[in-house]
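G., the chain you wanted modeled:
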Amino acid sequence: MALVYGFEGLDLYVTKLLSTKGNMTNLGILFNELQVGADQEKLILTMGGHYSPDYPVDSVSKNFDWVHIQAYGYHTPLVDNLTAAHVALYDPSSPVNTDYGINEWIKRGLPASQLVLGLAYHRYAWTLVDPNDNGLGAPAKGVAIIDDGKVGYKHIKQYLRSYGVNSVFNSTYVMNYCVIGSFWIVFDDV
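Predicted structure as tokens:
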């Protein structure tokens, strides 16, 4: 089908749900079969995966041209009741960050040349429990601004300008955040 529509490859996204220990052997077999087919048709084979490897990395390394890592979605206002870094490059208090995940992929055998970071264009907005307690890790009571809390960078910049708010840069997590009333928005700046 890829060739019929003029595509040059296939991209497989394996969710964390599929990558349970019981499925590891089957995933390895599937990856091998996909590569045989891709080689026969001269197609590029790529895989999207969780920031931290939950897959048979030796099979991934052998069978995929590259892997794009989902380096985002670590914390969201739909799940977390504390403000947090959605795309934490580094987090000294937790392994839930890009630095840790990339190092795990490499440590388990995937060459760095096969890694591509998948970064989200959107960021999240939380509603603070107390607008006066508004730093990283502040208590929150869910999403802000829109239903799922996702806010595009363009809109964040518009909010900053229209409300005359400055953002705060956190060099440990390599992120910016701002507070607009009871809304807490995390984002990456230029």
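Helices lie at 24-41, 57-63, 98-107, 153-163.

Shout if anything looks off.
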